[in-house]
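Good morning,

Attaching, inline, the backbone tokens for the sequence recovery test we're adding to the shared suite. The designed sequence is right after.
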């Protein structure tokens, strides 16, 4: 009798242990427990900690409430300006309603993934290539709204969507590279022309200042000679002094001016000629006529001028 009682107690204890082991559940801090009793949803969602369910009657499903990072597979599409691209993205979401995530959708992760892929294809077809490359913030917001609208009914909240990479064909990459190179070349030429304009203005101002002070040009020449001689890797040819050339030029210009400034002899009037008669030029032996063989040579004398 005692043995039968002991066996019954042991059997009951064993059944109790098995029952407790089957009924006891541990819900983690980042999880929530959804209980289904005979297939019907219980209104109370079990929080983190220890909880009990009725084995065989109730079923506990744990739902992760953490933010899930899910990569969206790369999608091929054609943009609005007819360019073939390949775009992939990443989506961040979390469950805010554990009961809806269990009841409203079969697998909320798979549903979110498929919705993200279709939304990504749709956003590619509605956008231009320049928007995909430079205006991603606007596209990310549009993609987030497209995914979040159906996900709200699943108890899922879309936290963020980011376009990760945009792959272009090689021909398009070369075309864009040529365009960028041409644009940079244009900007370089404009900057160079602007620099030349500013330099010409400064040189004009410098030339104006040097023209008022000729010694400044000689000093600038000497500075240039010093700058060239400092490198010590070339032959230095000292130019002819500019001031000496200017001195010679001024000397040549002053000689004709002095000749022009000398007084010219003025012609005498008739009264002055009467008072001072001109003397005949002396006859030199070379100018005397040679004697002829027929007789002695005759010497002619000039007649005196009549006085009035």
């Amino acid at each position: 009798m005692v043995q039968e009682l002991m066996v019954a107690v042991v059997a009951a204890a064993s059944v109790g242990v098995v029952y407790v082991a089957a009924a006891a559940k541990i819900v983690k801090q980042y999880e929530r427990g959804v209980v289904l009793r005979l297939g019907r949803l219980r209104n109370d969602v079990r929080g983190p900690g220890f909880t009990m369910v009725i084995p065989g009657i109730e079923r506990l499903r744990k739902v992760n409430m953490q933010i899930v990072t899910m990569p969206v597979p790369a999608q091929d599409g054609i943009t609005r300006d007819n360019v073939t691209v390949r775009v992939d993205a990443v989506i961040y979401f979390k469950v805010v309603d554990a009961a809806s995530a269990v009841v409203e959708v079969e697998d909320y992760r798979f549903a979110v993934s498929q919705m993200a892929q279709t939304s990504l294809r749709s956003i590619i077809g509605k956008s231009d290539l320049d928007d995909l490359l430079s205006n991603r913030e606007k596209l990310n917001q549009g993609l987030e709204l497209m995914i979040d609208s159906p996900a709200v009914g699943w108890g899922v909240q879309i936290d963020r969507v980011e376009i990760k990479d945009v792959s272009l064909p090689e021909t398009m990459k070369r075309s864009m590279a040529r365009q960028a190179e041409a644009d940079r070349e244009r900007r370089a030429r404009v900057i160079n022309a602007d620099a030349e304009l500013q330099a010409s203005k400064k040189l004009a101002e410098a030339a104006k200042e040097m023209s008022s002070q000729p010694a400044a040009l000689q000093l600038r020449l000497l500075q240039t000679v010093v700058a060239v001689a400092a490198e010590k890797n070339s032959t230095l040819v000292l130019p002819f002094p500019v001031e000496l050339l200017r001195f010679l030029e001024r000397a040549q210009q002053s000689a004709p001016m002095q000749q022009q400034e000398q007084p010219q002899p003025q012609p005498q009037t008739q009264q002055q000629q009467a008072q001072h008669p001109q003397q005949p030029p002396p006859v030199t032996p070379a100018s005397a006529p040679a004697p002829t063989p027929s007789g002695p040579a005759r010497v002619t004398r000039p007649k005196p001028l009549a006085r009035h």
